[in-house]
Amino acid sequence: MNKLCLLGVVVGLALQTAYADSPSQGPQNKDAFVADLLARMTLDEKIGQLRLIAIGGEMTHQRIEAEIAAGRIGGTFNSVTRADNRPMQDAAQRSRLKIPMFFAYDVIHGHRTQFPISLGLAASWDMDAIALSARTSTAEAAADGIDMTFGPMVDISRDPRWGRISEGFGEDTHLVSKIARVMVENIQGPSPANPDRMMASAKHFALYGAIEGGRDYNTVDMSPQRMFQDYLPPYRATVDAGAGGMMVALNSINGVPATSNTWLMQDVLRKQWGFKGVTISDHGAIHELIKHGVASDDREGAKLAIKAGIDMSMNDQAYGEHLPGLLKSGQISQADIDNAVREVLGAKYDMGLFANPYLRIGKAQDDPADVNAESRLHRAEARDVARRTLVLLKNQKQTLPLKKDARIALIGPLADAPDDMLGSWSAAGVATQSVTLLNGLRNAVADPAKVTYAKGANLTDDRATLDFIAHFNPEHVKQAIDPRSGQALIDEALAAARDADVIVAAVGEWRGMTHESASRVALDLPRTQQALITALRATGKPLVMVLMNGRPLTIGEQQRQADAVLETWYSGTEGGNAIADVLFGDYNPSGKLPVTFPRSVGQVPLYYSHLSIGRPFTPGHPGNYSSQYFDSEQGPLYPFGYGLSYTDFSLSDVSLSSKRLSRDGKVTASINVRNVGKVAGETVVQLYLRDVAASMARPVKELKHFRKVMLKPGESQTLTFDIVEGDLKFYNQQLVRAAEAGQFTVMIGLDSQDVKEATFELL
Ligand code: BGC
């Protein structure tokens, strides 16, 4: 052994021991530690670190442990208890270099306790609530021995046909970027090495939400301007917030799959943005390079992926089987492999696992006797967050709030559907622990017998939908479908409605309908439910429609029939209680839509921040040769940013501190908002900007600032927003981000459509 080598070993051992004593691991220590370890690894061990294996996949537990002990697996995902993870970490400790394993899971909007789905969280426009949900879910997952979450999912989507729109935070760049940052900060906390935190692995880099036609896994073809201006900023926000991981998208971008996209992975992610963490392929994505038509076999796929900069390969064999041969033949270099391994080791270091491989697994004697124990849930937090995510879309004749002594007929296929409350990607959530709307209403009233329930309709009778759901979950369909005829179900509901003062109808989609691989061509309520709403309307009783769904739905007809409409998404473990809080007015709704609701699927994509065009449709001036559909009303059913309250708010005109903005100065926009109703309430004041004439067509408006304010009846507040040059910048034809001199319009409102305007000039 030469002197240098010996020094390396001594430094390495000293550092490792030091880490065991001290959880504060500085960056210099990290680099030296990783370099030393890397120098001592065999090729086989290095490649092992690049393999991320699914629990419950092809390998048995025994085989996985044997592979780990041989140094041939770097991490696993899909195991969710300390007791499950401990034997795997034990196996790693039996391996030659004792490199710890990490355990990952999709903790998307909750763990044991489920919070509302991400689209619902976004509807709160409440960063404190979102932070609380992320912190709480993280603490629960870390307490189950999980080191990394495959989240946050920050794909902008403007296509509700895509089932995964439910997993993201909506259509808007500014709102999603803000949430992306809050999520990462609250998952990782001060350090992902803290025992009650995890590492965030943001996803799906990049542009997954823009797939063609909303068809899952499809292709994306997009101008660089739109990419950089609209779709990439949320991923960038996760990088700026220090996310330790990045999961790579399954789609191609302008013809090149993300998984083999050197421009995306190297030039954008690492060079432009300075990302220093670990990159992870999505499930089987390296193998899929063959189907994408860019690799002729797995060997070529592995070569393309490692060269592009995919550090870890999720659940495929390509790296394990082909990297040795590729290296031997000189098609890839040792540096290609070492660069990837360095990132994996670095991530494990950052997760605190070298200091203590059992950081989150703990000791067996401290394992919870029952992982699903009620005492492990965070119900108060879930309820508080959930009620902030509900959006009141209509409230005619003050139908809401309901009186607690009213006789209520609760009707609908989702009124008592515990697993649907949990929503897509509900991880370790347990349906029997979730509060359905039926439970929630009965919990809230003095006399539960006054809340009667009838199913009223099966969720759907559409064969294709039934087969689709049954394919993943045959039991769900069996349990959910009532064999009685549609008419018999409606008759039962009408009987319940006859004796009631008010009808509450819980309708929407099964959670499996808005999930991965669950794209739809129609966005309407299934016809069984449409018929139910029509029959209920005919009773003449006040009708409240409670929507449960993971995507915007085209419910024009039903919203006309209902007196009140409340969008509740999938509201999580405490959903029923939270919805009851709003229906009875114990909480005044304050949510705002994070995504546009179209009138019909034919309008999709429909989003508020579209580019200016030469022949826009002008409301009140229908006619030929303007941009319109002649067979429909124009515009959205509900615009982005929309949501009502039980009180009313009035806005003053906008006043600006100056009509001119210098490059290093600011213009302060002020607006007074007053609660002119009878109850206290919160609303979200939204500021949009428009570049009136630029070197390229610019959006008709773009959200740049917002604030959620609580006002008592009669109370008013003047809000100020500072507008600076940075707010006006955009990616020009040369892809340079710059602000151009000229006129700008400031628009402030309580949604994206109904706004007050003022103008200023950038000098
Ligand atoms: C999804 C990812 C997810 C992964 C692991 C994939 O099918 O696209 O979002 O993190 O599975 O569960």
**Quick check: average pLDDT?**
95
Report the sheet with the most strands, covering strand number, pairing sense and barrel closure: 8 strands, parallel
Beta percentage is 15-25%
CATH class of the domain at 379-603: Alpha Beta
With strands numbered from the N-terminus, the spatial order across the biggest sheet is 9-6-5-4-3-2-1-10
Number of strands: 27
Proportion in helices? 25-40%
First and last CA, distance: 67 Å
Give the C-alpha Rg.
Answer: 27 Å
CATH H-level superfamily title of the domain at 379-603: Glycoside hydrolase family 3 C-terminal domain
Architecture (CATH level 2) name of the domain at 379-603: 3-Layer(aba) Sandwich
Helix/strand class: alpha/beta
Bound molecules: beta-D-glucopyranose
- CATH topology title of the domain at 379-603: Rossmann fold
Low-confidence stretches: 1-25
Helical region count? Answer: 24
Q: Judging from the principal axes of the Cα atoms, what is the shape?
A: globular
